[in-house]
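Hey, can you fold this one?
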Amino acid sequence: MTQHWRVFLARSAPPGAISDFSAAEFVLEVAINLRYCMNLVQATPECVDLADLVLLRATNYGAARMGDKSHLFAEAEDALARAMRLLEIELEYCSQQASKQNRIEAA
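Sure. Predicted structure:
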């Protein structure tokens, strides 16, 4: 089964080296993509909490990137990557649970 939420989660990753980075635009894009992810699975409270964490980390990343402190930027980027990985694991779990539930209902 295709896990469409992976596409939206991937779109929440930092954009890399671009010159016209906007922290507000990045956070908004992350929020929208997280919303899509949550709508595509049967989100558990843990999913919602981790999505909130990713959004917080994205906000911190945007602020650090707009500043000129490379060590804070690197830490914020790493924290965002870790939060996204945790959310990915939970989304995978939610997706598998939904798939099992669908098979049970179909039987």
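The mean pLDDT is 86. Let me know if you want another pass with a different chain boundary.
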